[in-house]
ABC transporter permease
Amino acid sequence: MTAPPDDCLARNAWICGKYLSTRRGILTDAVLQHLELTGLSVLIALVVAVPLAVLARRLRAAAGPVLALTTVLYTIPSLAMFSLLLPLYGLSASLVVAGLVLYSLTLLVRNILAGLRAVPEETRQAARGMGYGPLRLLLTVELPLALPSAMAGLRIATVSAVSLVTIGAIVGHGGLGNLIYTGMNTYFKAQVLTASVLCVVIAVAADLLLLGVQRLLTPWQRA
């Protein structure tokens, strides 16, 4: 008599291929939402961080307040941050994005500012001597030389955002965090492990991708 096929879902096993095959659509949607929330929040944070870092570099009086503000934002616990933003955004994906933007600002502003400060003054003087105005100097000299430090901050901010997106599950917009949260509540082992592993994969893949972009944009560092 042939034994019945093993059903890892019925056994509630941690590793279960049947879970992957039967929940493919759910996993795909969760991954796409996770990527969307991460990418959008980091992009917005980068757009905000560059002007703030430039302002802090050009005006010494602004450096202290800018760094202090972003540091204070970073110290706020994630649940408290979402609670503070709740009256503004409600239980929406915008709430998660806004929280992640505020968290990413500290990492991005500090690293971009460090890169700008590391540009040799002799290089700036030489560019000015060649007729470079402030905007041209910033775009063609300072920002390119600040890229290594800026990209390092971008990598850290992106990996951090991948992790923090999962907390958005408390408002129903956490990407893979939704699966982790519901899986933990129901003790669905395969769902918890699969979603957690996918989070790690996304973080590692994003870091490697940005590292590759950094090497392409800074060929002089490989020399």
In short: The chain has one domain: 8-222.
